[in-house]
Amino acid sequence: MLTTAVVLSAPLILVSRDASELDAPDTLVATLPTRVSRLATELTAPETAVLITATVETALLTRVSRLATELTAPEIAVLTNVSVDSLVETLVSRLATELAVLDAAVLTVPTLVSRLATELCVFEAVVLTVRAC
Q: Pseudo-torsion of CA 73, 74, 75, 80, nearest 10°?
């Protein structure tokens, strides 16, 4: 199950690589998700028994992440086409936060990790909003 945790943290690493290619100040922001993913890996180690038992709940998480991937495609179009309208971008951020809350409800033990990830997602959304304007 530690392999699964590493695979799940791979999108965070890809995102931070993208962010570091965009601009030098973004590199400082991108180091925070890397630190969180390491922390999540360490916290997953004691919860191996819980994760093995929750195999059926893992399928729900996979479905949610697929849904998040589908939502990312419209977000890219919104961020490229809309320049000033921040209301649309705020709605996208709220939608991403609601999906993270759903993940927190499924993950009963690592709730603190889910809350941390939600806070970082909101902060990254603010950075993306500023860069889009």
A: 100
